[in-house]
TrEMBL record:
This is Dodecin domain-containing protein. InterPro entries: Dodecin, Dodecin-like, Dodecin-like_sf. It comes from Lutimaribacter pacificus. The lineage of its organism: Bacteria, Pseudomonadati, Pseudomonadota, Alphaproteobacteria, Rhodobacterales.
Length: 65
C-alpha cells in the first residue's frame, strides 16, 4: 500500500514566477524524499523594490514503508 502526504510551501523570487517554482521545488527535493507532484495553489506579485514573485505550492511525496 502506498501512502502519500502533501505539504504547502511558499517560494519567492525577484526573477519571475517560473523561477520561484523552480527554486521552491528544488528546495523541497533537498529535504523530502519521493516527491511525486507539485500543484501551484496561488501566485502573487509583491510590489516593492525589487518586486517579488510569490508562489504558494502543494508538494506531494510518498512516505517510506
Amino acid at each position: 500500500m502506498t501512502v502519500a502526504r502533501s505539504t504547502e510551501l511558499i517560494a519567492m523570487s525577484s526573477s519571475g514566477f517560473d523561477d520561484a517554482i523552480t527554486q521552491g521545488l528544488a528546495r523541497a527535493k533537498k529535504t523530502l524524499r519521493n516527491v511525486k507532484s507539485c500543484w501551484i495553489k496561488d501566485q502573487e506579485l509583491v510590489v516593492g523594490d525589487p518586486d517579488q514573485y510569490k508562489v504558494t505550492m502543494k508538494v506531494t511525496f510518498v512516505l517510506d514503508d
